[in-house]
Amino acid sequence: MEQLIPVNIIVADRSYRIKIKPEEEAEVRRIMKEVNEKIVDFKTAYAGKDLQDYIAMALIMYATHPVTSGGKAQASTAAFFAGEAGKAGRNYQPGIGLITLPIA
Hints:
By secondary structure, the protein is of the alpha+beta class.
C-alpha cells in the first residue's frame, strides 16, 4: 500500500485534513490556492451573497471547464457566468442555485 501523508488544506477559510501521496502535495496546494482565489473573485463580482454560493460557483466552474496544460481554468470568472453558462439561456442566480450548462 502506498504511503499517504496528511496535509491541511484551506477552502474558503475552513481547514480540511486530507491524505495524499507525497509527490502530489505541491500540485494540491497550488490548485487549492487557485480555488480560493476564484472564491475571492466571486465575492468581489457578486457582493452580498452567501459564502456557499461562491463555493458552488467555483465548483461549477472547475467541474465544467477542463484545465489547460498549465493547470489554469480556461474560463475567467466573469466570462463563465456572464457568457458561457448563459449560452443555454439561463445564467446562474446566486441564492436560487439553478444553472443550465451547455452540453459540448
